[in-house]
User: Fold this.
Amino acid sequence: MTGLVSAHSVVDPSPQVKRIAAFVVIGYALITLVPLLWIVMTGFKSPSDAIAYPPKIVAEPTVEGYCNLFTTRTRQAPEYMAKLPPAAGMCDRISRERNMVIAGPSNYIPRYVNSLVIAFGSTALSIVLGTLAAYAFSRFKVPLKDDLLFFILSTRMMPPIAVAIPIYLMYRELGLSDTKLGMILLYTSVNISLAVWLLKGFMDEIPREYEEAAMVDGYTRLQAFFKVVLPQATTGIVATAIFCLIFAWNEYAFAVLLTSGTAQTAPPFIPIIIGEGGQDWPAVAAGTTLFLIPIVVFTVVLRKHLLRGITFGAVRK
Amino acid sequence: MTNQTGLSGLVDRAALVTPPVVARRVRGLSERAIAWLFITPTMLLLLAINIFPLIWTIRLSFTNYRANRPNAAVLDVGLANYQSILTDPDVWAAMTVTARFVFWSILIQTMLGFTLAWLIDKKFRGHGLWTTLILLPMMLSPAVVGNFWTFLYQPQTGLFNYVVSAVTGAPASSFQMLAQVPLAPWAIVIVDTWMWTPYVMLICLAGLRSIPDYIYEAAEVDRASPWRQFWSITLPMALPFIMLAVLFRGIENFKMFDMVNLLTGGGPGSTTEVASITLKREAFEKWRTGYSSAFAIILFVTVFGLANIYVKALNRVKSR
Assistant:
Protein backbone atom coordinates (compact mmCIF):
# COMPACT_ATOMS: atom_id res chain seq x y z
CA MET A 1 0.00 0.00 0.00
CA THR A 2 1.06 3.63 0.32
CA GLY A 3 3.63 2.53 2.90
CA LEU A 4 5.68 4.49 5.35
CA VAL A 5 7.74 6.42 2.82
CA SER A 6 4.85 8.57 1.56
CA ALA A 7 4.41 12.04 3.04
CA HIS A 8 0.75 11.76 4.03
CA SER A 9 -0.47 9.87 7.09
CA VAL A 10 -1.62 6.26 6.92
CA VAL A 11 -5.30 7.18 6.93
CA ASP A 12 -5.02 9.96 4.35
CA PRO A 13 -6.24 8.64 0.97
CA SER A 14 -3.81 8.58 -1.96
CA PRO A 15 -3.89 11.45 -4.51
CA GLN A 16 -5.39 9.07 -7.06
CA VAL A 17 -8.32 8.18 -4.80
CA LYS A 18 -8.83 11.87 -4.08
CA ARG A 19 -8.97 12.68 -7.79
CA ILE A 20 -11.63 10.05 -8.45
CA ALA A 21 -13.64 11.21 -5.42
CA ALA A 22 -13.44 14.84 -6.56
CA PHE A 23 -14.50 13.88 -10.09
CA VAL A 24 -17.63 12.02 -8.94
CA VAL A 25 -18.68 14.56 -6.29
CA ILE A 26 -18.19 17.58 -8.56
CA GLY A 27 -20.05 15.78 -11.35
CA TYR A 28 -22.99 15.10 -9.05
CA ALA A 29 -23.01 18.70 -7.80
CA LEU A 30 -23.01 20.10 -11.34
CA ILE A 31 -25.89 17.85 -12.44
CA THR A 32 -28.04 18.75 -9.43
CA LEU A 33 -27.42 22.46 -9.98
CA VAL A 34 -28.82 22.34 -13.54
CA PRO A 35 -32.50 22.63 -12.48
CA LEU A 36 -31.65 25.67 -10.32
CA LEU A 37 -29.72 27.34 -13.15
CA TRP A 38 -32.61 26.60 -15.47
CA ILE A 39 -35.00 28.41 -13.12
CA VAL A 40 -32.80 31.53 -13.13
CA MET A 41 -32.38 31.40 -16.93
CA THR A 42 -36.07 30.86 -17.65
CA GLY A 43 -36.85 34.01 -15.67
CA PHE A 44 -35.05 36.04 -18.31
CA LYS A 45 -36.63 34.40 -21.37
CA SER A 46 -39.65 35.46 -23.38
CA PRO A 47 -42.66 33.12 -23.07
CA SER A 48 -42.06 31.68 -26.54
CA ASP A 49 -38.33 31.12 -25.90
CA ALA A 50 -39.15 29.40 -22.60
CA ILE A 51 -41.15 26.67 -24.32
CA ALA A 52 -39.08 26.43 -27.51
CA TYR A 53 -38.01 23.03 -28.83
CA PRO A 54 -35.18 22.15 -28.62
CA PRO A 55 -34.78 24.02 -25.30
CA LYS A 56 -32.87 27.26 -25.82
CA ILE A 57 -29.76 27.56 -23.69
CA VAL A 58 -28.94 30.98 -25.12
CA ALA A 59 -31.93 33.25 -25.62
CA GLU A 60 -32.35 36.98 -26.04
CA PRO A 61 -32.61 38.16 -22.41
CA THR A 62 -35.75 40.07 -21.47
CA VAL A 63 -37.30 41.25 -18.23
CA GLU A 64 -40.80 40.38 -19.44
CA GLY A 65 -41.09 37.57 -16.87
CA TYR A 66 -40.32 40.01 -14.04
CA CYS A 67 -42.74 42.59 -15.48
CA ASN A 68 -45.47 39.95 -15.65
CA LEU A 69 -44.66 38.83 -12.12
CA PHE A 70 -45.20 42.27 -10.62
CA THR A 71 -48.18 43.45 -12.70
CA THR A 72 -51.60 42.40 -13.89
CA ARG A 73 -52.42 43.22 -17.50
CA THR A 74 -55.50 43.40 -19.69
CA ARG A 75 -55.74 42.82 -23.42
CA GLN A 76 -57.05 45.83 -25.36
CA ALA A 77 -58.25 46.53 -28.90
CA PRO A 78 -55.67 48.13 -31.25
CA GLU A 79 -57.85 51.29 -31.59
CA TYR A 80 -57.70 51.79 -27.84
CA MET A 81 -53.95 51.16 -27.78
CA ALA A 82 -53.39 53.78 -30.49
CA LYS A 83 -55.07 56.48 -28.40
CA LEU A 84 -52.86 55.91 -25.32
CA PRO A 85 -50.06 58.32 -24.36
CA PRO A 86 -46.50 57.03 -24.92
CA ALA A 87 -45.37 54.14 -22.73
CA ALA A 88 -44.11 55.28 -19.33
CA GLY A 89 -41.58 52.55 -18.54
CA MET A 90 -39.89 49.39 -19.69
CA CYS A 91 -42.66 47.07 -18.48
CA ASP A 92 -45.26 49.35 -20.04
CA ARG A 93 -43.46 49.16 -23.40
CA ILE A 94 -43.10 45.35 -23.26
CA SER A 95 -46.76 44.77 -22.47
CA ARG A 96 -47.90 47.12 -25.25
CA GLU A 97 -45.92 45.12 -27.78
CA ARG A 98 -48.24 42.26 -26.85
CA ASN A 99 -51.35 44.47 -27.12
CA MET A 100 -51.74 44.60 -23.35
CA VAL A 101 -52.09 47.44 -20.89
CA ILE A 102 -50.84 47.25 -17.32
CA ALA A 103 -53.91 47.24 -15.06
CA GLY A 104 -52.16 47.38 -11.70
CA PRO A 105 -49.68 45.66 -9.39
CA SER A 106 -49.95 41.89 -8.88
CA ASN A 107 -50.23 40.19 -5.49
CA TYR A 108 -46.62 38.96 -5.54
CA ILE A 109 -45.14 41.70 -3.33
CA PRO A 110 -47.87 41.47 -0.63
CA ARG A 111 -47.44 37.66 -0.60
CA TYR A 112 -43.66 38.01 -0.32
CA VAL A 113 -44.07 40.51 2.54
CA ASN A 114 -46.44 38.04 4.26
CA SER A 115 -43.76 35.38 3.94
CA LEU A 116 -41.20 37.71 5.52
CA VAL A 117 -43.47 38.79 8.39
CA ILE A 118 -44.65 35.27 9.19
CA ALA A 119 -41.21 33.65 8.86
CA PHE A 120 -39.39 36.24 10.99
CA GLY A 121 -42.27 36.58 13.47
CA SER A 122 -42.54 32.87 14.12
CA THR A 123 -38.75 32.47 14.29
CA ALA A 124 -38.43 35.26 16.87
CA LEU A 125 -41.22 33.77 18.97
CA SER A 126 -39.81 30.22 18.70
CA ILE A 127 -36.37 31.41 19.76
CA VAL A 128 -37.59 33.46 22.74
CA LEU A 129 -39.89 30.72 24.07
CA GLY A 130 -37.49 27.93 23.09
CA THR A 131 -34.48 29.52 24.80
CA LEU A 132 -36.36 29.99 28.07
CA ALA A 133 -37.79 26.47 28.06
CA ALA A 134 -34.48 24.92 26.98
CA TYR A 135 -32.70 26.68 29.85
CA ALA A 136 -35.24 25.38 32.36
CA PHE A 137 -35.02 21.85 30.92
CA SER A 138 -31.23 22.03 30.90
CA ARG A 139 -30.63 23.42 34.39
CA PHE A 140 -33.48 22.23 36.58
CA LYS A 141 -33.66 18.44 36.77
CA VAL A 142 -37.23 18.20 35.52
CA PRO A 143 -38.78 14.79 36.21
CA LEU A 144 -40.66 13.22 33.29
CA LYS A 145 -38.43 15.39 31.08
CA ASP A 146 -37.60 12.63 28.60
CA ASP A 147 -41.26 11.60 28.27
CA LEU A 148 -42.27 15.20 27.79
CA LEU A 149 -39.59 15.92 25.18
CA PHE A 150 -40.48 12.73 23.31
CA PHE A 151 -44.15 13.65 23.38
CA ILE A 152 -43.36 17.11 21.99
CA LEU A 153 -41.28 15.55 19.21
CA SER A 154 -43.91 12.95 18.38
CA THR A 155 -46.40 15.66 17.42
CA ARG A 156 -44.13 16.24 14.44
CA MET A 157 -45.02 12.76 13.18
CA MET A 158 -48.56 13.92 12.41
CA PRO A 159 -49.04 14.62 8.71
CA PRO A 160 -49.59 18.39 8.37
CA ILE A 161 -52.96 17.78 6.75
CA ALA A 162 -54.07 15.88 9.86
CA VAL A 163 -53.09 18.79 12.09
CA ALA A 164 -54.71 21.24 9.70
CA ILE A 165 -58.23 19.81 10.22
CA PRO A 166 -58.66 20.80 13.90
CA ILE A 167 -56.57 23.96 13.44
CA TYR A 168 -58.91 25.00 10.65
CA LEU A 169 -61.95 24.52 12.89
CA MET A 170 -60.31 26.17 15.89
CA TYR A 171 -59.12 29.21 13.92
CA ARG A 172 -62.59 29.61 12.42
CA GLU A 173 -64.03 29.82 15.93
CA LEU A 174 -61.35 32.23 17.18
CA GLY A 175 -61.31 34.46 14.10
CA LEU A 176 -57.70 33.54 13.36
CA SER A 177 -58.42 32.09 9.90
CA ASP A 178 -56.27 33.66 7.21
CA THR A 179 -54.48 36.01 9.63
CA LYS A 180 -50.75 36.53 9.99
CA LEU A 181 -51.00 36.08 13.77
CA GLY A 182 -52.65 32.68 13.28
CA MET A 183 -49.90 31.53 10.93
CA ILE A 184 -47.15 32.87 13.22
CA LEU A 185 -48.60 30.92 16.18
CA LEU A 186 -48.99 27.77 14.08
CA TYR A 187 -45.43 27.85 12.68
CA THR A 188 -44.10 28.63 16.16
CA SER A 189 -45.83 25.57 17.57
CA VAL A 190 -44.29 23.42 14.83
CA ASN A 191 -40.82 24.92 15.25
CA ILE A 192 -40.70 25.05 19.01
CA SER A 193 -40.18 21.32 19.51
CA LEU A 194 -37.08 21.45 17.32
CA ALA A 195 -35.98 24.71 18.94
CA VAL A 196 -36.25 23.35 22.51
CA TRP A 197 -34.52 20.15 21.47
CA LEU A 198 -31.57 21.84 19.72
CA LEU A 199 -31.19 24.67 22.24
CA LYS A 200 -31.23 22.33 25.21
CA GLY A 201 -28.25 20.56 23.65
CA PHE A 202 -26.37 23.82 23.23
CA MET A 203 -27.21 24.90 26.81
CA ASP A 204 -26.02 21.55 28.17
CA GLU A 205 -22.60 22.30 26.69
CA ILE A 206 -22.24 25.53 28.70
CA PRO A 207 -20.65 24.66 32.06
CA ARG A 208 -22.92 25.31 35.07
CA GLU A 209 -19.90 26.67 36.94
CA TYR A 210 -20.14 29.92 34.94
CA GLU A 211 -23.53 30.89 36.35
CA GLU A 212 -22.75 29.51 39.77
CA ALA A 213 -19.66 31.72 39.92
CA ALA A 214 -21.73 34.71 38.81
CA MET A 215 -24.34 33.95 41.47
CA VAL A 216 -21.66 33.76 44.18
CA ASP A 217 -20.60 37.22 42.98
CA GLY A 218 -24.10 38.50 43.78
CA TYR A 219 -25.97 38.02 40.51
CA THR A 220 -29.50 36.68 40.78
CA ARG A 221 -30.35 33.55 38.76
CA LEU A 222 -32.14 35.73 36.18
CA GLN A 223 -29.20 38.11 35.84
CA ALA A 224 -26.85 35.15 35.46
CA PHE A 225 -29.08 33.76 32.73
CA PHE A 226 -29.18 37.00 30.76
CA LYS A 227 -25.59 38.14 31.30
CA VAL A 228 -23.67 34.86 31.41
CA VAL A 229 -25.62 32.06 29.72
CA LEU A 230 -27.22 33.92 26.81
CA PRO A 231 -23.97 35.38 25.39
CA GLN A 232 -22.41 31.89 25.60
CA ALA A 233 -25.34 30.37 23.72
CA THR A 234 -25.30 32.82 20.78
CA THR A 235 -23.89 30.33 18.25
CA GLY A 236 -26.51 27.76 19.14
CA ILE A 237 -29.29 30.33 19.01
CA VAL A 238 -28.19 31.47 15.53
CA ALA A 239 -28.07 27.87 14.25
CA THR A 240 -31.53 27.18 15.66
CA ALA A 241 -32.94 30.43 14.25
CA ILE A 242 -31.76 29.53 10.75
CA PHE A 243 -33.62 26.24 10.95
CA CYS A 244 -36.84 27.83 12.16
CA LEU A 245 -36.56 30.51 9.48
CA ILE A 246 -36.01 28.03 6.65
CA PHE A 247 -38.94 25.87 7.76
CA ALA A 248 -41.33 28.82 8.04
CA TRP A 249 -40.14 30.36 4.76
CA ASN A 250 -40.57 27.11 2.80
CA GLU A 251 -43.77 25.77 4.38
CA TYR A 252 -46.56 24.97 1.94
CA ALA A 253 -49.14 22.49 3.29
CA PHE A 254 -50.53 24.65 6.13
CA ALA A 255 -50.28 27.79 4.01
CA VAL A 256 -52.28 26.35 1.11
CA LEU A 257 -55.00 24.92 3.38
CA LEU A 258 -55.35 27.68 5.95
CA THR A 259 -54.68 30.91 4.02
CA SER A 260 -56.31 32.20 0.90
CA GLY A 261 -56.10 35.97 0.92
CA THR A 262 -54.67 38.52 3.34
CA ALA A 263 -52.25 36.13 5.06
CA GLN A 264 -51.28 33.96 2.08
CA THR A 265 -47.53 33.39 1.81
CA ALA A 266 -45.50 33.11 -1.39
CA PRO A 267 -45.24 29.27 -1.71
CA PRO A 268 -48.96 28.69 -2.41
CA PHE A 269 -49.06 31.82 -4.59
CA ILE A 270 -46.15 31.15 -6.98
CA PRO A 271 -47.57 27.93 -8.53
CA ILE A 272 -50.80 29.71 -9.49
CA ILE A 273 -49.23 32.57 -11.44
CA ILE A 274 -50.88 32.16 -14.81
CA GLY A 275 -50.76 34.10 -18.04
CA GLU A 276 -52.92 33.79 -21.12
CA GLY A 277 -53.26 30.14 -22.08
CA GLY A 278 -51.77 28.38 -19.07
CA GLN A 279 -48.86 28.94 -16.75
CA ASP A 280 -46.66 31.94 -17.47
CA TRP A 281 -43.36 30.08 -16.97
CA PRO A 282 -40.98 33.06 -17.19
CA ALA A 283 -43.05 34.86 -14.52
CA VAL A 284 -43.17 31.69 -12.37
CA ALA A 285 -39.40 31.33 -12.78
CA ALA A 286 -38.88 35.00 -11.88
CA GLY A 287 -41.04 34.63 -8.77
CA THR A 288 -39.22 31.40 -7.84
CA THR A 289 -35.80 33.02 -8.30
CA LEU A 290 -36.64 35.97 -6.05
CA PHE A 291 -38.10 33.59 -3.47
CA LEU A 292 -35.01 31.34 -3.46
CA ILE A 293 -32.36 34.10 -3.31
CA PRO A 294 -32.56 34.75 0.47
CA ILE A 295 -32.17 31.05 1.26
CA VAL A 296 -29.27 30.56 -1.17
CA VAL A 297 -27.47 33.55 0.39
CA PHE A 298 -28.20 32.20 3.88
CA THR A 299 -26.91 28.74 2.98
CA VAL A 300 -23.65 30.01 1.54
CA VAL A 301 -22.94 32.68 4.17
CA LEU A 302 -23.99 30.69 7.24
CA ARG A 303 -22.97 27.20 6.12
CA LYS A 304 -20.83 26.50 9.21
CA HIS A 305 -23.80 27.12 11.54
CA LEU A 306 -26.10 25.13 9.28
CA LEU A 307 -23.88 22.06 9.11
CA ARG A 308 -23.58 22.12 12.88
CA GLY A 309 -27.35 22.29 13.31
CA ILE A 310 -28.17 19.52 10.84
CA THR A 311 -25.62 17.03 12.07
CA PHE A 312 -26.12 18.03 15.68
CA GLY A 313 -29.37 16.13 16.13
CA ALA A 314 -27.85 13.03 14.60
CA VAL A 315 -24.70 13.12 16.64
CA ARG A 316 -26.42 13.72 19.94
CA LYS A 317 -29.15 11.12 19.67
CA MET B 1 -54.14 12.89 28.23
CA THR B 2 -53.03 13.83 31.73
CA ASN B 3 -50.53 16.38 30.58
CA GLN B 4 -52.28 19.32 32.12
CA THR B 5 -52.12 17.88 35.62
CA GLY B 6 -48.70 16.39 34.95
CA LEU B 7 -47.35 19.79 34.07
CA SER B 8 -48.05 21.60 37.32
CA GLY B 9 -46.66 18.74 39.36
CA LEU B 10 -43.67 18.73 37.08
CA VAL B 11 -42.53 22.26 37.83
CA ASP B 12 -43.01 21.77 41.56
CA ARG B 13 -40.85 18.70 41.48
CA ALA B 14 -38.33 20.57 39.35
CA ALA B 15 -38.00 23.11 42.11
CA LEU B 16 -37.76 20.38 44.76
CA VAL B 17 -34.81 18.62 43.20
CA THR B 18 -32.75 21.82 42.95
CA PRO B 19 -30.29 21.83 45.86
CA PRO B 20 -31.81 23.85 48.73
CA VAL B 21 -28.48 25.44 49.67
CA VAL B 22 -28.15 27.15 46.29
CA ALA B 23 -31.80 28.11 46.29
CA ARG B 24 -31.55 29.86 49.64
CA ARG B 25 -28.47 31.79 48.65
CA VAL B 26 -30.15 33.22 45.52
CA ARG B 27 -31.83 36.57 45.83
CA GLY B 28 -34.63 37.77 43.57
CA LEU B 29 -37.02 35.22 42.09
CA SER B 30 -36.96 31.72 43.51
CA GLU B 31 -35.78 28.81 41.39
CA ARG B 32 -39.28 27.45 41.36
CA ALA B 33 -40.74 30.71 40.05
CA ILE B 34 -38.12 30.85 37.30
CA ALA B 35 -38.80 27.26 36.25
CA TRP B 36 -42.50 28.13 36.06
CA LEU B 37 -41.87 31.35 34.21
CA PHE B 38 -39.60 29.74 31.63
CA ILE B 39 -41.52 26.55 30.85
CA THR B 40 -45.12 27.74 31.03
CA PRO B 41 -45.32 29.85 27.81
CA THR B 42 -43.99 27.00 25.68
CA MET B 43 -46.28 24.48 27.31
CA LEU B 44 -49.31 26.74 26.93
CA LEU B 45 -48.59 27.19 23.22
CA LEU B 46 -48.12 23.45 22.72
CA LEU B 47 -51.28 22.68 24.69
CA ALA B 48 -53.28 25.16 22.62
CA ILE B 49 -51.94 24.36 19.16
CA ASN B 50 -50.70 20.75 19.37
CA ILE B 51 -52.39 18.84 22.15
CA PHE B 52 -55.84 20.39 22.22
CA PRO B 53 -56.30 19.94 18.43
CA LEU B 54 -55.11 16.34 18.74
CA ILE B 55 -57.77 15.64 21.38
CA TRP B 56 -60.33 17.41 19.21
CA THR B 57 -59.35 15.22 16.24
CA ILE B 58 -59.79 12.10 18.34
CA ARG B 59 -63.23 13.33 19.45
CA LEU B 60 -64.29 14.20 15.88
CA SER B 61 -63.16 10.83 14.57
CA PHE B 62 -66.12 9.20 16.36
CA THR B 63 -68.68 11.53 14.74
CA ASN B 64 -70.13 12.26 11.32
CA TYR B 65 -69.27 16.00 11.61
CA ARG B 66 -68.80 17.95 8.37
CA ALA B 67 -66.94 21.27 8.62
CA ASN B 68 -68.87 22.81 5.73
CA ARG B 69 -72.18 22.24 7.54
CA PRO B 70 -71.53 23.64 11.02
CA ASN B 71 -75.25 23.79 11.86
CA ALA B 72 -76.12 20.19 10.96
CA ALA B 73 -76.74 17.78 13.83
CA VAL B 74 -73.57 15.94 14.88
CA LEU B 75 -74.14 12.25 15.53
CA ASP B 76 -71.95 9.88 17.43
CA VAL B 77 -71.13 7.05 15.06
CA GLY B 78 -68.84 5.07 17.35
CA LEU B 79 -66.17 3.17 15.46
CA ALA B 80 -67.99 3.33 12.09
CA ASN B 81 -65.42 5.75 10.59
CA TYR B 82 -62.52 3.50 11.55
CA GLN B 83 -64.35 0.47 10.26
CA SER B 84 -65.12 1.99 6.87
CA ILE B 85 -61.54 3.30 6.47
CA LEU B 86 -59.94 -0.06 7.23
CA THR B 87 -62.25 -1.83 4.76
CA ASP B 88 -61.99 0.83 2.02
CA PRO B 89 -59.93 -0.48 -0.94
CA ASP B 90 -59.06 3.12 -1.95
CA VAL B 91 -57.41 3.70 1.43
CA TRP B 92 -55.39 0.51 1.08
CA ALA B 93 -54.40 1.57 -2.43
CA ALA B 94 -53.19 4.92 -1.06
CA MET B 95 -51.22 3.13 1.67
CA THR B 96 -49.61 0.88 -0.95
CA VAL B 97 -48.66 3.89 -3.09
CA THR B 98 -47.18 5.58 0.00
CA ALA B 99 -45.23 2.47 1.03
CA ARG B 100 -43.80 2.04 -2.49
CA PHE B 101 -42.83 5.71 -2.67
CA VAL B 102 -41.17 5.59 0.77
CA PHE B 103 -39.31 2.37 -0.05
CA TRP B 104 -37.86 3.39 -3.41
CA SER B 105 -37.08 7.01 -2.59
CA ILE B 106 -35.32 6.09 0.67
CA LEU B 107 -33.41 3.19 -0.90
CA ILE B 108 -32.02 5.35 -3.71
CA GLN B 109 -31.29 8.35 -1.49
CA THR B 110 -29.50 6.25 1.11
CA MET B 111 -27.22 4.53 -1.40
CA LEU B 112 -26.48 7.75 -3.24
CA GLY B 113 -26.14 9.82 -0.06
CA PHE B 114 -23.78 7.38 1.62
CA THR B 115 -21.62 7.06 -1.50
CA LEU B 116 -21.31 10.83 -1.76
CA ALA B 117 -20.49 11.18 1.95
CA TRP B 118 -17.85 8.45 1.65
CA LEU B 119 -16.27 10.23 -1.33
CA ILE B 120 -16.40 13.66 0.35
CA ASP B 121 -14.73 12.11 3.40
CA LYS B 122 -11.68 11.48 1.17
CA LYS B 123 -11.12 15.22 1.78
CA PHE B 124 -10.09 16.21 -1.74
CA ARG B 125 -9.21 19.85 -2.27
CA GLY B 126 -12.25 22.14 -2.29
CA HIS B 127 -14.60 19.55 -0.78
CA GLY B 128 -16.12 22.16 1.55
CA LEU B 129 -17.34 24.36 -1.30
CA TRP B 130 -18.80 21.45 -3.27
CA THR B 131 -20.54 20.10 -0.18
CA THR B 132 -22.25 23.48 0.26
CA LEU B 133 -23.35 23.52 -3.38
CA ILE B 134 -24.73 19.98 -3.11
CA LEU B 135 -26.77 21.11 -0.09
CA LEU B 136 -28.67 23.81 -1.99
CA PRO B 137 -31.64 21.71 -3.23
CA MET B 138 -32.62 20.61 0.30
CA MET B 139 -32.68 24.18 1.60
CA LEU B 140 -35.22 25.36 -0.95
CA SER B 141 -39.00 25.21 -0.68
CA PRO B 142 -40.18 21.76 -1.87
CA ALA B 143 -43.40 23.32 -3.11
CA VAL B 144 -41.88 26.17 -5.09
CA VAL B 145 -39.10 24.08 -6.60
CA GLY B 146 -41.34 21.02 -7.05
CA ASN B 147 -43.72 23.22 -9.00
CA PHE B 148 -40.88 24.19 -11.34
CA TRP B 149 -40.14 20.51 -12.01
CA THR B 150 -43.49 20.25 -13.80
CA PHE B 151 -41.91 22.64 -16.31
CA LEU B 152 -38.79 20.47 -16.65
CA TYR B 153 -41.08 17.44 -17.18
CA GLN B 154 -43.11 19.05 -20.03
CA PRO B 155 -43.46 16.30 -22.65
CA GLN B 156 -42.52 18.34 -25.71
CA THR B 157 -40.29 21.11 -24.49
CA GLY B 158 -39.12 20.21 -20.99
CA LEU B 159 -35.40 20.09 -20.27
CA PHE B 160 -35.68 16.68 -18.59
CA ASN B 161 -37.33 15.06 -21.60
CA TYR B 162 -34.79 16.73 -23.86
CA VAL B 163 -31.80 15.40 -21.91
CA VAL B 164 -33.30 11.90 -21.68
CA SER B 165 -33.98 11.84 -25.42
CA ALA B 166 -30.46 13.11 -26.15
CA VAL B 167 -28.99 10.29 -24.05
CA THR B 168 -31.29 7.42 -25.06
CA GLY B 169 -32.34 8.47 -28.55
CA ALA B 170 -36.06 8.17 -27.79
CA PRO B 171 -38.05 11.15 -29.12
CA ALA B 172 -38.68 13.77 -26.44
CA SER B 173 -42.42 13.76 -27.08
CA SER B 174 -42.75 9.96 -26.81
CA PHE B 175 -43.08 9.89 -23.02
CA GLN B 176 -44.84 12.02 -20.40
CA MET B 177 -43.30 11.75 -16.96
CA LEU B 178 -46.30 13.15 -15.09
CA ALA B 179 -49.17 11.76 -17.15
CA GLN B 180 -48.22 8.13 -17.77
CA VAL B 181 -49.14 5.49 -15.20
CA PRO B 182 -45.79 3.64 -15.17
CA LEU B 183 -43.70 6.84 -15.12
CA ALA B 184 -45.51 9.20 -12.72
CA PRO B 185 -44.34 7.48 -9.48
CA TRP B 186 -40.76 7.65 -10.73
CA ALA B 187 -41.13 11.33 -11.61
CA ILE B 188 -41.84 11.97 -7.93
CA VAL B 189 -39.04 9.68 -6.72
CA ILE B 190 -36.59 11.57 -8.98
CA VAL B 191 -37.52 15.00 -7.58
CA ASP B 192 -37.50 13.70 -4.00
CA THR B 193 -34.07 12.11 -4.56
CA TRP B 194 -32.73 15.31 -6.14
CA MET B 195 -33.93 17.30 -3.18
CA TRP B 196 -33.15 15.08 -0.18
CA THR B 197 -30.04 13.04 -1.04
CA PRO B 198 -27.94 15.91 0.46
CA TYR B 199 -29.69 15.41 3.81
CA VAL B 200 -28.79 11.71 3.94
CA MET B 201 -25.29 12.63 2.80
CA LEU B 202 -24.82 15.09 5.67
CA ILE B 203 -25.88 12.65 8.36
CA CYS B 204 -23.70 9.90 6.85
CA LEU B 205 -20.80 12.37 6.73
CA ALA B 206 -21.25 13.08 10.44
CA GLY B 207 -21.15 9.31 10.99
CA LEU B 208 -18.00 8.78 8.93
CA ARG B 209 -16.22 11.66 10.68
CA SER B 210 -17.06 10.16 14.08
CA ILE B 211 -14.89 7.09 13.32
CA PRO B 212 -11.54 7.69 15.07
CA ASP B 213 -8.41 7.58 12.91
CA TYR B 214 -6.60 5.14 15.21
CA ILE B 215 -8.95 2.34 14.19
CA TYR B 216 -7.86 2.69 10.58
CA GLU B 217 -4.23 3.02 11.68
CA ALA B 218 -4.54 -0.24 13.60
CA ALA B 219 -6.14 -1.93 10.58
CA GLU B 220 -3.30 -0.64 8.41
CA VAL B 221 -0.75 -2.13 10.79
CA ASP B 222 -2.63 -5.45 10.55
CA ARG B 223 -2.45 -5.12 6.73
CA ALA B 224 -6.23 -5.22 6.28
CA SER B 225 -7.13 -4.52 2.64
CA PRO B 226 -9.15 -1.34 1.84
CA TRP B 227 -12.05 -3.62 0.90
CA ARG B 228 -11.86 -5.37 4.28
CA GLN B 229 -11.53 -2.02 6.11
CA PHE B 230 -14.66 -0.73 4.41
CA TRP B 231 -16.82 -3.75 5.30
CA SER B 232 -15.54 -4.33 8.83
CA ILE B 233 -14.88 -0.76 10.02
CA THR B 234 -16.47 1.96 7.89
CA LEU B 235 -19.88 0.46 7.21
CA PRO B 236 -20.63 -1.05 10.64
CA MET B 237 -19.52 2.10 12.46
CA ALA B 238 -21.54 4.38 10.20
CA LEU B 239 -24.60 2.11 10.31
CA PRO B 240 -26.38 3.83 13.24
CA PHE B 241 -26.13 7.13 11.37
CA ILE B 242 -27.39 5.61 8.12
CA MET B 243 -30.32 4.12 10.04
CA LEU B 244 -31.05 7.48 11.64
CA ALA B 245 -31.11 9.18 8.23
CA VAL B 246 -33.51 6.47 7.03
CA LEU B 247 -35.75 7.11 10.05
CA PHE B 248 -35.92 10.88 9.53
CA ARG B 249 -36.47 10.59 5.78
CA GLY B 250 -38.98 7.76 6.24
CA ILE B 251 -41.16 9.84 8.58
CA GLU B 252 -40.97 12.85 6.25
CA ASN B 253 -41.83 10.87 3.14
CA PHE B 254 -44.67 9.05 4.84
CA LYS B 255 -46.22 12.48 5.42
CA MET B 256 -45.29 13.71 1.93
CA PHE B 257 -47.79 16.21 0.61
CA ASP B 258 -46.45 19.39 -1.02
CA MET B 259 -44.35 17.95 -3.84
CA VAL B 260 -46.87 15.31 -4.87
CA ASN B 261 -49.72 17.82 -4.71
CA LEU B 262 -47.91 20.15 -7.09
CA LEU B 263 -46.34 17.59 -9.42
CA THR B 264 -49.23 15.23 -10.08
CA GLY B 265 -51.98 16.03 -7.57
CA GLY B 266 -52.26 12.26 -7.11
CA GLY B 267 -52.76 11.48 -10.79
CA PRO B 268 -52.85 10.08 -13.38
CA GLY B 269 -55.96 8.38 -11.99
CA SER B 270 -54.76 7.59 -8.49
CA THR B 271 -51.32 6.16 -9.34
CA THR B 272 -49.49 8.68 -7.17
CA GLU B 273 -52.21 9.30 -4.60
CA VAL B 274 -50.23 9.04 -1.37
CA ALA B 275 -52.02 9.00 1.99
CA SER B 276 -51.72 12.76 2.55
CA ILE B 277 -53.42 13.50 -0.77
CA THR B 278 -56.31 11.16 0.08
CA LEU B 279 -56.55 12.85 3.45
CA LYS B 280 -56.66 16.30 1.87
CA ARG B 281 -59.42 15.20 -0.52
CA GLU B 282 -61.54 13.74 2.27
CA ALA B 283 -60.99 16.66 4.63
CA PHE B 284 -60.91 19.74 2.41
CA GLU B 285 -62.71 18.73 -0.79
CA LYS B 286 -65.38 16.25 0.30
CA TRP B 287 -65.52 17.89 3.77
CA ARG B 288 -65.97 14.54 5.55
CA THR B 289 -64.34 15.93 8.69
CA GLY B 290 -65.21 13.05 11.03
CA TYR B 291 -64.08 10.41 8.55
CA SER B 292 -60.83 12.22 7.74
CA SER B 293 -60.11 12.75 11.45
CA ALA B 294 -60.27 8.99 11.92
CA PHE B 295 -57.95 8.56 8.93
CA ALA B 296 -55.54 11.13 10.42
CA ILE B 297 -55.46 9.22 13.72
CA ILE B 298 -54.81 5.94 11.90
CA LEU B 299 -51.92 7.52 9.97
CA PHE B 300 -50.47 9.02 13.15
CA VAL B 301 -50.65 5.71 15.01
CA THR B 302 -49.05 3.94 12.02
CA VAL B 303 -46.05 6.32 11.83
CA PHE B 304 -45.71 6.38 15.59
CA GLY B 305 -45.81 2.58 15.84
CA LEU B 306 -43.41 1.98 12.95
CA ALA B 307 -41.01 4.66 14.23
CA ASN B 308 -41.00 3.11 17.71
CA ILE B 309 -40.24 -0.39 16.39
CA TYR B 310 -37.51 1.09 14.22
CA VAL B 311 -35.95 3.09 17.08
CA LYS B 312 -35.74 -0.15 19.12
CA ALA B 313 -33.87 -1.81 16.25
CA LEU B 314 -31.64 1.25 15.98
CA ASN B 315 -30.76 1.14 19.67
CA ARG B 316 -29.88 -2.53 19.37
CA VAL B 317 -27.47 -1.73 16.51
CA LYS B 318 -25.97 1.17 18.47
CA SER B 319 -25.35 -0.86 21.61
CA ARG B 320 -23.50 -3.57 19.68
Residues 218 and 224 of chain B are 9 Å apart (CA to CA). Chain B is about 75% helix and 0% strand. The radius of gyration of chain B is 25 Å. Chain B touches chain A through 113 residues (CB under 8 Å).
